Amino acid sequence: MKLVLVLALALLGAVSARQLHEGAPEQEVPAEQGEEEPGEPEPPCPTETESFRMIVPGQEGHTCRYVIVNNCQPFWKAQRLCARCYRGRLASIHNYATNHRLSCTARTRTNRGQVWLGGITSRRGGRAFSRWMDHSPWNYTNWARGNPSRAGQNCIVLCTADGHWRSVSCGTHLPFICEY
After folding, report:
1. What residue ranges define each of the domains in the chain, with the CATH number in brackets?
2. Rounded to two decimals, what is the model's pTM?
């Protein structure tokens, strides 16, 4: 059963290929993933009216594609929907321009003040650490005052009003941004 869970996490990008080869340690499997009811059916993919696709020119000629989904889900379910429906993942942000563009678009396309990004904060040795679920470098931040939370493990949201990030409980139901 553990191998099946590790393989599923690898497909979702929550475990790296290196960790699969070495055997993923228990602490790499976030507890929140197991909190949903077993056998609970996955929600259908978002419809065209529940989502908005956009393209953002990236650095060095790379183009980033995003979809803002207005169908509120907890973090882990949003991550699985990104993988299943868009062959992507919750978005990671690496510069001011992308952060600004996504927050402005999410503000006009959702009716909520926060949307999920693909990051997690956790506490080790009394300090908060943050990482992107896609294992990309943690090279840009835009934390709101008092964040990230230093209490346990939380997931990262983008505030649509000001573009700041906050760490909130991963079980909160929110719209989300997929990157594909």
Report:
1. 1-34 (no CATH), 49-179 (3.10.100.10)
2. 0.78
